[in-house]
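Appendix B, example 12.
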Amino acid sequence: MKKGFTLIELLVVVSIIGVLATIVLGSLNDARSSARDARRQQDIRSIQNALEVYYLDNGEYPIRGFTRSYNSSWEALEAELGVVLPRDPINESGLAYNGDKNYIYYSLYRANYGGCPAGQWYALIYNPERIVDPSENPGVTRCDNGQPLTLGAGNNAITVGFSPAE
């Protein structure tokens, strides 16, 4: 009587192990991207809190063009706010509203553009890894003209912000 496994039996076992490993690794990657998305939402809330404290102290938000978390403009915003701001877990260079993973802060830098006095609203843009329903990105309603500004609509980016005139 022979003891041991045949080549066919070994191949079947190795194939089953390979399929199971693929399923487990795929689930692990989904869990990691979900965790990064949860962190992004928490980071955005932290940035919003810092902006609201600044607004209470100064009567306006920092007036800046596009400020990106992957370059020195973010450090300048940190210095202006007096806090260390979070950065995207991936924080790649590029534009969040074009699909790259980073944070962008934007506030009016021209007086009374679109019915908004400079420094009275802002947009924070980030790009989650999960696919976003377009209805989840209503944009930021700009002051007295009531027009939503949605940066990245259709590109999976989320625009959040606040306007005291609302």
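The chain has a mean pLDDT of 81. DSSP finds two helices and six strands in the chain.
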